[in-house]
Amino acid sequence: MDRSLSRPLSALYQLSIPFVVALLCVMFSMLPLGLSSGVVIAPSFALMAVYYWGLYRPDLMPPFTVFLVGLFQDLMSGGPLGLWSLVYLAVYGVVVSQRLFFIGKAFLAIWFGFGVMALVAGTISWVVSCLYFGMVLSPLSVLVLALLSFVLYPVAARFFAAVQNQFLIQP
Amino acid sequence: MRHRLGQADRITVPFRMLSHRFSMAVMLIISCALLLFGRAEAYVFDDARTKTVEIMAPVMELFSAPLSLFRNWLGNFDDYFDVYEKNRQLREENNRLLAWKTRALRLEQVAIRYQDLLGVQLEPEITYISGRVVSDSGGPFVHTMIINTGRKQGVTEGQAVVDRQGFIGRVVGTGREASRILLISDLNSRVPVLVESSHDRAVMTGDNTSRPNLEFLSDNAEIKAGDRVVTSGSGGMLPPGLPIGVAVQAGDGKFRVQPFANQARAAYVRVLRYEFPKEIELETDEEVVTKTLSVELPPQPPALPEPEPSPAEPQAQPLPPTESQPQVTTGEPIQVLPLGEPDEPLGDDDG
Fold it and tell me: Which residues of A touch B146 (CB under 8 A)?
């Protein structure tokens, strides 16, 4: 009796951890740090979260969660709704399909893989935005975003790993 | 046990993969549908956006509160390096500004007199609501900001937002205690502006860069780099005369605006409450003509006496009665902008 109840609860708890972490990542990217000048370009921590969980625990981050994370970012930013859901889903799809290649590889390979995915994410968001706004936008801001995200990925990955070890039961 | 699980896995894995692909496809389709629908009917999701901001602003505020400390520290850290140089600069600037103050007070008197003579409708006074920035990044293609003041404090959509240096954007969405600001660098930002020295009008359009474009300048515009650009107030959306920045010439020969405000560093902003004159008295052509004539009729406009170099009380001097505009409050000099960075605009003239 007790067990039958605790199992779905535990599953829900396990599912909620990566989701909450990803939502926090979205918010963290939007915090007014005041470090840059001119136009704000923040690294996408949510992209790192999607990449990380897609790679290590896709069972705990189903496409639905990825979609919601993107939707949350779109609602918060006030931009086109569906843009970041689409970008994160695309990245997630690629990562999940390639995870057997990555699993067991050195961190450097995974980091490099993230760099490629950051560029993919930047390209998709740039193309979709160009279509959405009906004009050719400068790709500079997404390049900066991809670069910043790439540089900061090891820090975020360490944090995600700590969360994973602390709160989640290994499969 | 282990054997049973393995068997279960063998059955469920293909199913799970199928379900994964299916849900992946569904979510991708929903995302695309949202994009297409949002493109066609942009306003549909406004409520959802406002609600999100309303709910999330307190959370963001909680997270960003410790940041103020960090930002202050960072700001102070910067200051330590150039404290002597800054001090010297400020002294010099102060001397310059004192001279300017005298001149400004004199000119204010002159302006009031002219306004009275011409029967100018004075601008209503601007009040402001201060707010703290709780979120400052909308992503690479959207430049918005969320502040922690909303409808409860009297913020409404369309109001202008300034920081210490100048205009940074306007309110596009209001929640109860949070608002979203569309920054001047955003793609959707269109601000009617006036180039102060040449009186050329233009529309400042954001293009994701820190220097918005000046568009629809007339061909014979006499704009030059370094000219101050202010809001023109055309279209009745924004109060006129808010300083935005200076005109700069880009590589392609087009003019852009280098804003005074640094939107990435803005920690506190002010939302300007500005009542537009609602009732516009329609004048017939004859009335306009007679009015114009009556202004031009006196062969010699009354010579303006030079006011004292330092009139401590600008209101002390008796003003001519204002017959045409009895409702105008002449006692209080209008405050077109409560803020302003006098450094740059004055520095040029002083040069």
Answer: 30, 76
B 148-167 near A (Cβ less than 8 A): none
Chain B contact for A171 (CB, 8 A cutoff): no
Question: Which H/E stretch holds residue A75?
Answer: helix A63-77
Residuewise pLDDT in 10s, chain B (351 residues) = 444 445 656 666 677 778 888 899 999 999 999 999 988 887 878 888 888 888 988 888 888 877 777 777 766 666 677 788 888 889 999 999 999 999 999 999 998 888 888 877 666 677 889 998 988 877 888 899 999 999 999 999 989 999 888 999 999 989 888 999 999 999 889 999 999 888 888 999 998 888 999 988 888 888 888 889 999 888 878 888 889 999 998 888 788 999 998 887 788 899 998 876 655 555 555 554 444 444 444 444 444 444 444 444 444 344 444 334 333 333 344 344 444 443 333 333 332
Can you give the CATH number for the domain in which A87 is found? 1.10.1760
Of A66, A77, A89, the CB nearest to B139: A77
- Total domains present in chain A: 1
Could you tell me the two tokens for B274? 């500005």
The C-alpha atoms of residue B113 and residue B131 are separated, in whole angstroms, by: 37
User: Nearest to residue B144, comparing CAs of B133, B128, B132?
Assistant: B133
State whether B64 and A41 contact (CB < 8 Å): no
Angle made by CA atoms B233, B237, B238, in degrees to the nearest 5: 50
A140 in a domain, yes or no? Answer: yes
Is the CB of A82 less than 8 angstroms away from the CB of B34?
A: yes
Q: Tell me, what's the ipTM?
A: 0.88
Please indicate, yes or no, if residue A21 is contained in any of the structural domains: yes
DSSP-assigned beta bridge partners for residue B193 = B202, B231
